Amino acid sequence: MRFPSLLLFLCACSLSEEEEDQLAAHLQRAQIYFDNRDYPRAQQQANLGLIIEPENPTLNHIMGRALLGMHDIQSVRNSGAFLKVAHEDMDSARTAYSLGEYHLRLAELMLKRAEHLKARAAGLPEEEAQDMEKRAARTVSNSGIELVVARELLETAVAKFPENPHALRLLANCCAHQRDKNRALVVLGDLVQIMGKSRAYKNEKLALQSLSVADERRLRKGVRADISMEIHARGLIATILMNGKDFASAELEFNQILNLDPGVNEEYYNRGLCRYRLGRLGEAASDMRTFLGRTSLEFKSKTAVRALDIVSEYEALQKTGAGPSP
What we know:
Blueprint: H1 2-13, H2 17-35, H3 39-52, H4 57-70, H5 73-90, H6 93-121, H7 126-160, H8 165-177, H9 181-208, H10 213-243, H11 247-260, H12 266-277, H13 281-294, H14 302-320
């Protein structure tokens, strides 16, 4: 009894030659727009293609990725349905990465929501505050469920492509949220090594090969992207180390970051805190002065006040002659 129904279904799903041509055109345009980060038009073309073939995995993947690229909350939420269809049909490292990113982004939105609820609870009457805190706790619990799913998908993507920097970065972020610092540090260590090798390869080509203007620009852009990724990785390593009170190792990471890009202003503050914790007040104050001279934060902000306090402490010791020299 099922065979006639299946036959009717297959006939209904078959496309005419004209529809196949239209589908191919929409897919091609959607991919071009997506590659150029024109996410609204990528969505438009993907949607037109999905009207013809709703279960097309490639179009579903492009639609989901384009929605993730929009960065607003609703777009992130909407991306999940498309990415799930793509992964169910393709089941590739690429779709596992995309679906893992969706669940990670959703978890991070939930964690931000929980922090917002906790902040609101502080100014409410006791009963309302307790209700708000319960809502925050439920939100954190739900984020944990999303992180478990994200971790499984991202581990799958990394296992298939262990040198994909984007998958490694997301997996490390996921592990950090789960407070699995050992796995996070291993993943981040791999990411730092990969970025170092990639940057060295590109710099060697720039130094030794005769390149066209376009190729040189592409390689220099790639070097900057490698540096940015390595800075992100080392920053997360340093944060984990600081949370574990390993300030000496964290300082080494901040040194590497500032060697790569002396313009990462907030890392002067973070390195200053490490040096302060290590008892090197003069160096800490020097970092804090650099930070204060560059930051756009208001001086009444918590971070700026902390930096000013360290500078003031050093200057007070200098006046009494009890402090270290600069």
